[in-house]
Input
Amino acid sequence: MASGWVYVVHNDGIQSPKAKDGCKTYKIGITKKTVSKRYYGLGLKMPGEFFCKFAYRFDNGRYGEVEGMLKNLLNQLNDGGEWFNLNTNALKGVQSVCEACDGVLDTDTIQKQITEKDSIPPKYTPAQWANMTQGQKAAAKAHATQEIIKQQKHEKRSQAGMKAAATRKKNAQKNN
Output
């Protein structure tokens, strides 16, 4: 059975206007291996720093099932995708579900990966990264940043094109 984690992270730079009554916006996610590459990209796209509120390791392979249960239970608190507006009681509820499903508290592993000083760009393995000079690492990070920015621009152009096509189609239907 594959091990994996269910984690809850927070970033003070991300605050939803929907978060009221002592709630903060948290991301609930899962990973089988490492979150450092995911947060490398997210850190470039979002303000502030990510902090792991808590994470549970599931050696029984149930991390995906637990994530699904949590998202169903917290559906009314969903702020889009994997983001939820949670208060202290809701966070305690998440922890209770994880513990009831035999999750082992393992926050430090995930936090270390998120805040790792030399976070690894997506195309490199930890072994490759360890063998690189500081100059190579700086160049690799700069290249990865440029690629992410290029991808974001492409996605925006694609979305604008799809929106324009939908508008043209809607207008054509009105005129017929």
Notes: Residues 10 and 47 are 12 Å apart (CA to CA). The first helix runs from residue 36 to 45. Strands lie at 4-11, 24-31, 50-58, 78-80, 83-86, 104-105. The mean pLDDT is 82.
